Amino acid sequence: MNPVDPAKAYRLFYPAVPAIVSCSAGGTVYAMPVVSIVSLSNDPPLVGVSSSPSHSTHRAIARAGRFSVAWVGSQLAPALEFLGTTPHTGEDKLLSAGLRHERGGTLDVPVVEGAAAVLECSLWSRHVTGDHELLIGRIEAARAIADFQGYWRFEAYHPVLYAGIQRGSFETYRERPTP
Ligand SMILES: Cc1cc2nc3c(=O)[nH]c(=O)nc-3n(C[C@H](O)[C@H](O)[C@H](O)COP(=O)(O)O)c2cc1C
């Protein structure tokens, strides 16, 4: 085996399924993809997102105290790539990425149209973890398309697999082969 720079060891976790974390604050919609997302607790239902405080979305979540999570199918991989490589500008980053959205049914958070599953989360706590911060959300509402029957059937939902940014390449995301 060859040595790996410990600061780059996070890449050994790939491929990973990214989710879109978004937030509405002061009339502006913020959004970014994250791979560092994990289910932390069932009761209460808690989800953790490791996020760099340098991101506009991170700062907006800290202000608003709530956020949404959306998992999208591989057909929306280009939008994910846009969200992950474009710093926030303008009033609505989701729309800039071509993603329409509506207000959550429980919280005032943007919910991505066409998503396979969404969470509406209130910000439960924040913890500094090195150069990132763990944002812990309490899941106030969750919804999924019919392909989720207690578990994913993967008949309609084909997750994005992220393997790392390949410079200038749209092959950043590897699609799961359709059965
Ligand atoms: C697929 C993908 C996954 C990412 N995952 C994370 C992550 O887990 N945590 C993080 O802090 N940044 C992550 N990033 C980086 C941010 O999404 C990216 O810097 C984004 O443009 C920040 O947007 P904002 O400044 O508008 O908030 C990821 C980027 C990509 C492309």
Structure description:
The chain has 179 residues and is mostly beta strands. It contains 3 helices and 11 strands. The chain has a single domain, classed as Pnp Oxidase, Chain A (Roll). It is 12% helix and 40% strand. The chain has a 7-stranded antiparallel beta sheet with strand order 2-1-5-8-9-4-3. Strands 6-7 form a two-stranded antiparallel ribbon. The protein has a two-stranded antiparallel ribbon with strand order 10-11. The chain binds flavin mononucleotide. Flavin mononucleotide binds next to strand 2, strand 4, helix 1 and helix 2.
Q: What gross morphology would you assign?
A: globular
How are helices and strands ordered from N to C?
A: EEEEHEHHEEEEEE
Bound molecules: flavin mononucleotide
Radius of gyration over all CA atoms, rounded: 16 Å
How helical, in percent, are the residues? 10-25%
Mean pLDDT: 91
Secondary-structure class = mainly beta
Keywords:
single chain; 179 residues; mainly beta; Pnp Oxidase, Chain A; seven-stranded antiparallel sheet; two-stranded antiparallel ribbon; 11 strands; globular; binds flavin mononucleotide
